[in-house]
Amino acid sequence: MDNKKYLKWYNKIGYGSGDIAGNVVYAFLSSFVMIYLTDTAGLNAGIVGTLMMVSKIFDGITDIFFGAMIDKTKTKMGKARPWMLWPYIGCSIALAAIFAIPTNMGDVAKYAYFFIAYTLLNAVFFTANNIAYAALTALITKNGNERVQLGSIRFIFAFGTSLLIQSVTVGAVEWFGGGADGWKTVAIIYAIVGLVVNTISVFSVKELSENDLANENPVNEEAARFSSDAYPDFELAESTCPKEKKEEKYSLIQAMKMLFSNKYYIMICGIYICCHLYSSMISMGIYYMTYILGNADMLGTFSAFINIPMMCGLLITPFLVKKCGGMYKLNFAGYLIATIARALVIVGGYMGNVPMMLIFTAIAAIGMSPMQGDLNALIAACSDYTYRTTGKRIDGTMYSCSSLGVKIGGGLGTALTGWLLAAGNYIANADIQPESCINMLNFMYLWLPMIFNLIITIILSKMTVEKANEDWDKAHNK
Fold first, then answer.
1. Is position 222 within any domain?
2. Would residue 1 count as lying in a domain?
3. Which residue range forms the structural domain that includes residue 70?
């Protein structure tokens, strides 16, 4: 990986601040949309969950499409930045719309209104913005350490924003009058904040030229032959033809073939999905705090014990990656610790020992932090692997795993919340929930996060893409 430095400190901060914009959408939606829909809009949790799941069908179609569109884009702003900038206007409008369901509508109209707004937000606007934002990691620097730093900085902003939203939203809704009007006002404020910060982030960095990016990894004649044999319609990459630049041409189907021939891409998709399923279960904590701990404000306390340790861990992630000589050992060990810690959160939960729950929640967050910080760099390494073995750069398409994971994991997680609440016989606004609901809330908030962490740990034990790149270089650059 290139050791040249490409970014100033303000470029890194500016890029990372883009996750404030992303999380005023994601954190607000994942933490509060369900309780807004059930307790304020008066919709059925099970039906809402089903609509969210149907919406994911459209989501799954658009991820790779927008990734391929980014790869084919050529403007003065670059490939990714236009797609990060303009779709966020739609994000802002759709987010406000979701939390502004007209109270005088009939139930069928409310469900239709929600489905349309939710699908537009996730399948169109957030998809384009999020993939472009993630792809910028590989397009603004070729320095591996800088990529890890970018990942750490962006997730510090992400978790800081999540902490703030989870801590202040309930109070802010009440301050603005509560009920439907309170939710609508808060959503509009978050939408405006996101739009402003996203715009600042877009103009804080510049993409490298195609010539600079094409020289990142040498691809020799053997790789070029592999590319031609595997994908006969492809042109050779520039690095195989140094004297004359060839236009990279490939269809969406060909891009998908390259993606799914890279086993590490599939692994990262699995990691992303499980991460956001985990986040969705943690985000439904407002139900757990309200009906089991008896205090909705505890959501902010638990959020602090997740996000503050996470941010501290992210600060030292670049140093730890260098110290460990890569991401593999650090990520695997961290998630092993996190899985054990979440198991002890379960013990504390059934004992009714809140301090124990908070302590091991914090330990789990510290263990999870390295992979959260270097995940974008890990995707960049997967993209490098595709480039080595095919001679084609498909960074935008490769980074579709980030949006795909956010929406399948986050969407399925939120939908699962609705289904499980309905299965547990949740009663909106009830002072006391039935025993079946209490048992379901324990399963959702205590058991499922540990299970998802265990799955991620198993996947990380196989995530050896850094070694694969090194082995390829040794075999082909003799």
1. no
2. no
3. 12-202+252-476
CA 161 from centre of chain: 14
Q: How far apart are CA 149 and CA 37, in angstroms?
A: 38
Does residue 64 sit within a domain?
A: yes
Extract the tokens encoding 255. 């891009």
What is the total count of domains within the chain?
1
pTM above 0.90, yes or no: no
Question: Coil, strand or helix: which one is 2?
Answer: strand
d(CA 112, CA 114) in angstroms, rounded, equals 5
Cα separation, 341 vs 163, whole angstroms? 20
Please, is 478 exposed, middle or buried when counting C-beta atoms within 10 Å of its C-beta (0-12, 13-18, 19+)? exposed
Q: Are 187 and 46 contacting, i.e. CB atoms less than 8 angstroms apart?
A: no
Q: Let me know if residue 102 belongs to a domain.
A: yes
- For residues 274 and 409, is the Cβ–Cβ distance under 8 A? yes
Per-residue pLDDT 10s for the chain (478 aa) are 557 888 999 999 999 999 999 999 988 988 899 999 999 999 999 999 899 888 877 776 787 788 788 888 889 899 999 999 999 999 999 999 999 999 899 999 999 999 999 999 988 999 899 889 988 888 898 887 888 888 889 888 988 898 899 899 989 999 999 999 999 999 999 999 999 999 999 999 999 887 776 665 444 333 333 333 333 333 333 333 334 444 456 666 777 788 788 899 889 889 988 998 998 899 889 899 999 999 888 988 999 999 899 989 988 988 898 888 889 999 999 999 999 999 999 999 999 999 999 999 999 999 999 998 888 788 888 888 888 888 787 766 776 666 666 667 777 887 888 999 999 999 988 889 999 999 999 999 999 999 999 999 999 999 999 999 888 888 887 6
- CATH number for the domain harbouring residue 435: 1.20.1250.20
How long a stretch of residues is the chain? Answer: 478
Whose CA is closest to 384, among 473, 469, 464? 469
